[in-house]
Design goal:
homodimer; 209 residues; mainly alpha; Arc Repressor Mutant, subunit A; Tetracycline Repressor, domain 2; 10 helices; 0% strand; globular; DNA-binding
Chain lengths: 209, 209
DNA sequence: TATAAAATAATAGTGACTGTCAATTTAAAC
DNA sequence: GTTTAAATTGACAGTCACTATTATTTTATA
């Protein structure tokens, strides 16, 4: 995966141009989405604004959605997760990994992430794609966790753990879409903290009437 | 929502025919999907097999996906959930609601559900749509829960609860797709039982090396 | 500079989906 | 039972994401 983005040092004119076109497409795409909405923006328009032919677009991104989704975050997160010391609990490790992942991002990257998340939440099509992505990410994490615990990869409890974390992230997305003023990274951490504390699910709701 | 399907008693020829066409479309669609795969089956084929025009298809289902998704399950589940006594914890109530929902289904309905779930898991497009549906279902449930607890509708912990349950259901789907022999309803219950028991998340993983 | 390789553009097509309008079928009024 | 109004359908034309193919241009290398 990461071999798609080689070191800036040994980049020929070719690779440099490709990266530039890639970034241009994303920027112009996001600009048009912002200005006219996602559905109203056609790939033809994005291509024209980026000064390439429509057919070339698909050599850079497999779908229109990919322009927004585009995450290398997953690999980063997993890498960070595997580095966590083995005496941490799963959630502690996951929480730390997420925190480190965010910390490594520049302010620009964080802002761009914020805009992308907002767009993702508002366009059903994108939301669907992002959910699938989460799904796959957590399947991957489930595998990592299983290995870490010496459990089979399809262990039921491990799958449930993965599911619950994934669910937390979705809830965070939803929460943030309703609270645009909230800091995304802070909310993520808050959510994981809640999980770390055991998530008072059993108690919550046994109300005496 | 449920007013779309009126009582069989006072149904004119019109309504009867509509229901019949609807069912025919679903059956023929599922048959074709089974025989040639989802992508390889065009709406034109489904329409032809159902003896209607392609343009009429879209008067019965907004999308090709809807042919597979088609859930009245949500309303049923929510209804069942609201009936649960207030002294049950949230998960207890949710678990009971799911159990009752399944119990009300005929064997045929359960089998059809099984086939649909299997198809949904294997076709990315459908998986995406089903995830969105879950998302919306649980947003609805989050609202119900908030009301039940006299908390604001955007309460953080409530959202997390909804998220975790949704995550559980996704994990169940994934688990079942890898264990086709497993009984879907049983696994759902097992998962919720695990949640009910507190889900040993914190403990899980603090391994001494 | 010539040549091979890679990237791009142009073109034609498929299929889901939308909108419109005329034709048909059914329900209801008389 | 016939007429009338409404609902349902079908035919048609069009949009747009996306695929496949082929010719053309651009870049890297010998």
């Amino acid at each position: 995966m990461s071999e798609d983005i080689p070191e800036p040092a040994k980049m020929g004119l070719r690779e440099k141009k490709k990266l530039k076109t890639r970034r241009t497409l994303q920027q112009q795409g996001m600009r048009l989405f912002r200005e006219q909405g996602y559905d109203a923006t056609t790939i033809e328009q994005i291509a024209e604004a980026s000064e390439i032919s429509p057919s070339t677009f698909f050599r850079y991104f497999p779908t229109k959605e990919a322009l927004v989704l585009e995450d290398d975050d997953d690999e980063l997160l997993i890498e960070s997760f595997m580095k966590q010391p083995a005496d941490k609990s799963l959630i502690q490790a996951f929480r730390a990994a997420v925190k480190e992942g965010f910390a490594e991002m520049t302010r620009e990257e964080q802002e761009s992430l914020g805009e992308r998340v907002a767009l993702m939440m508002s366009v059903p099509e994108l939301r669907a794609a992002s959910l699938i992505q989460m799904n796959e990410t957590l399947l991957m994490i489930a595998r990592l966790v299983a290995d870490r615990l010496d459990r089979p990869r399809d262990d039921f409890e491990v799958m449930m753990f993965a599911g619950s974390v994934m669910g937390a992230m979705m809830a965070v997305q939803l929460y943030c879409s309703e609270h645009p003023e909230a800091d995304f990274t802070a909310v993520v951490d808050q959510a994981l903290a809640l999980y770390e504390a055991g998530l008072p699910l059993g108690a919550l709701g046994s109300r005496q009437v």
